[in-house]
Structure formats: C-alpha cells, structure tokens
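Lab meeting, action items carried over

1. Structure of the two-component assembly. Owner: GW. Status: complete.
Input record:
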Amino acid sequence: MSVGLEHYLVVSGLLFGLGLLGVMLRRNLLVVFMSIELMLNASNLALVAFSRFNRHLDGQVMVFFVITVAAAEVAVGLALIVALCRLRLKPDVEELTTLKL
Amino acid sequence: METILFYCFSVLALLFGFLVVANPLSRNPVASAMFLVLTILSLAGFFVLLHAFFLAAVQILVYAGAVMVLFLFVLMVLSVEEERRRRVGRFALIVGGGSVLALLAVFGAALAGGASVSGGPAIEGDAQALGKLLFSRYLLPFELVAVLVLIAVVGVVLLGKKRTQPTRPPGEISRVRDERGS
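Predicted assembly:
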C-alpha cells in the first residue's frame, strides 16, 4: 500500500491537535510557544504534502514564508517574555489575567 | 522503502510531539524544548520524503538551529521551575474524549474510503527551482517578508532594551510646554 496524500494529512492533523492540546493544557508561556511552533510545523507538513501531490512548487514557497514569519514571531514573543520577567512576573499564563473578563 | 520510512517518521514525530506537550516523566520546559528539536528533525525527514530538499535544509537550519537556540537561551536566562500538575475536570475529560473520538473517526473515514492520490512523479523542490519561483512570481511577498523581519528586529531591540532614565527631569517638559503656551 503506497503512501498517499491522506496519510500525510492525517499525521499533520494529529500533530496540529497535539499542539492545540499543549496550548490549552500547559501553563508555562514558553511551552505554550513551543506548542504554537508545533502547530505551525503541522500546517507546513500539510502544505508540502499538497505541493507534492498536486505537482506544484507554490506550496513549498508558502512554507518558506511560514518558516520566516514563525522565526520572527518567536523572536518577538521571547522578547515579550523577557520583558515580563523584567517586571518580576513569572512566565505563567495564570499570572497574566489583566484581560480576563 | 518509502512506506516504511513514512511510518517510521510519523511514529517518531507523533511520539516526540506528544512528549513536548505532555511528558509523563517531567514537566521541565527544557525537556519539552529537546523533544521539540526531535519533532522538527522528523518533520525534516518527511520533507525529504516529499522531495522538498531545500525546505528540509531550511527546517533544520532555522528551526532546529536558530529558533531552538533562542528558546534555550531564554530558558537559561529565566529561572526555570517545574510546572505543578493540575487535575483535569470531568467535563473536560468528556468533551476532550468525545472530540478525540470524532477526530479519529474522520481520519479513519479518510484513510478507508476513496482512491488514494498517488500523484505521479514528483517535482524536485531543490534550491534552484524554489529560488527561481521566489525571485520571479513571489518577488513582492519576498520583499514584504524582508520588511517584516526588519520590523521584528526593531521590535525586539525596543522590547529588550533596558529602560534608561530620561535625560530631562520629568517636570521640565511640561514647564517648557507652559512657556510656549504663554
């Protein structure tokens, strides 16, 4: 049985679900960031699989942009976390409740 | 051969991904970061299987190299402590289990029914092909991404800068404004 598009999509969906689980379950901001990275990687896998099976390179260019934007996002997010720690706050989502209803 | 490699990589990616978010042995963020590196490496293996060689190299260089080093630096600078475990409520268990079952049912239906998309011969996603596309058809998004990275650099420097004392004492600015007004 050869590996088709849907196999890759299932793996990508499961990885995305794991990332979503991490965002909702974990309380450490850094681990939440890592889970967001996991979700981005899952979507990258789906894009590359579509690009391979549709015989287009456009999906891979899209993945290139996603990787760039993810790197920029990580840099800004980690700078925000460092700025939080400078205010003597722990990097914990339970501490940042200013916007809570 | 490709099938065996696909299943190897998918088991590895899912296992390591699970260990990133819910490691049963430790709740240390450093362990999560290390398992995220392994997940990214197995995803690079997927990219090689899909003939996206350039993206596999970029994935290893940018993610496993740069991004994870950034994560580990921040983990080193901040004092890392173990996260305390929380109990999961009954409502959350029921809803979560139901959605997992629904997701698995959808995936099972996707794998069982319908003809498999085999795709035919692959296009090689090497650096030359991607570079040609990037500098012809996707030139404008490429330039915009460059601007975005510049904005990110400026933002990070601004956020990470230590707040310095203002050169004038705080009362002086309002005094200047009063003098201008009068």
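2. GW to write a short summary for the group page. Key points so far: Residues 58-86 of chain A form the longest helix (29 residues). The radius of gyration of chain A is 17 Å.
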